[in-house]
């Protein structure tokens, strides 16, 4: 869909909605330095006036577009800035933000079960829990032995390769 103006239209609508709600700015996640799946393109955002507000240890940036003068930049919670957990084995946090999680999470759970792989799945269903996920992305955050692995939704094959 590149080159058709959809990104401009969506961003314009987002800015309009934020201004109508008297917000001081808008923010978005992107990958540090390059485009990554399911994250916004940082080059496009910089071109549109966004600034980097914070950077997580896993290379995911929080960018913002101030809508009022001297708007304070947002920042990650420490748990999102430095994603890690204490649990051993695989731990997956996910929400229903993306329809693909509803399809792939049960399949990955089944693959883990069939192969005797320890996998704890945590379905985030409320705002408070989402705000306390130990990762910058709540749609899908996969950890192994306490270390953040990926925000990319895994197929059975990709998961088993990990």
Overview of this structure, please?
The chain is an alpha+beta fold. The protein has two domains: 6-76, no CATH class; 80-161, Glutaredoxin, CATH 3.40.30. It is 32% helix and 23% strand. The protein is built from six helices and seven strands; from the N terminus they run H-E-H-E-E-H-E-H-E-H-E-E-H. The protein has helices at residues 6-20, 42-47, 78-81, 99-114, 127-131, 156-161; strands at residues 25-31, 51-55, 60-66, 90-94, 119-123, 140-144, 147-150. It has a four-stranded mixed beta sheet with strand order 5-4-6-7, with helices on one face. A hairpin with a 2-residue loop joins strand 6 and strand 7 (147-150). The protein is elongated and about 55 Å long. This is YoaP-like protein. InterPro entries: Thioredoxin-like_sf, YoaP-like_dom. Pfam families: YoaP.
CATH T-level fold name of the largest domain: Glutaredoxin
Number of strands: 7
Which shape, going by the Cα principal axes? elongated
> First CA to last CA: what distance?
31 Å
Radius of gyration (Å)? 17 Å
Instruction: Write down the domain tally.
Output: 2
| Order of helical and strand elements | HEHEEHEHEHEEH
Main CATH class of the largest domain: Alpha Beta
| Helix-strand makeup class | alpha+beta
Percent strand equals 15-25%
Largest β sheet strand count, sense and barrel closure: 4 strands, mixed
CATH architecture of the largest domain: 3-Layer(aba) Sandwich
InterPro entries: Thioredoxin-like_sf, YoaP-like_dom
Organism: Hallerella porci
Pfam families: YoaP
Domain YoaP-like: 119-159
């Amino acid at each position: 869909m590149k080159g058709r103006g959809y990104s401009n239209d969506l961003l314009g609508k987002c800015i309009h909605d934020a201004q109508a709600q008297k917000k001081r700015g808008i923010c978005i996640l992107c990958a540090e330095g390059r485009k990554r799946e399911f994250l916004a393109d940082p080059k496009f955002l910089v071109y549109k006036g966004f600034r980097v507000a914070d950077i997580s240890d896993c290379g995911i940036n929080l960018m913002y577009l101030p809508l009022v003068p001297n708007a304070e930049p947002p920042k990650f919670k420490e748990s999102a800035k430095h994603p890690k957990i204490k649990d051993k084995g695989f731990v997956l946090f996910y929400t229903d933000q993306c329809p693909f999680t509803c399809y792939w999470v049960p399949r990955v759970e089944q693959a883990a079960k069939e192969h005797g792989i320890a996998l704890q799945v945590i379905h985030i269903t409320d705002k408070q829990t989402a705000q306390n996920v130990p990762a910058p992305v709540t749609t899908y955050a996969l950890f192994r032995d306490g270390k953040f692995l990926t925000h990319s939704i895994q197929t059975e094959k990709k998961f088993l390769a990990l």
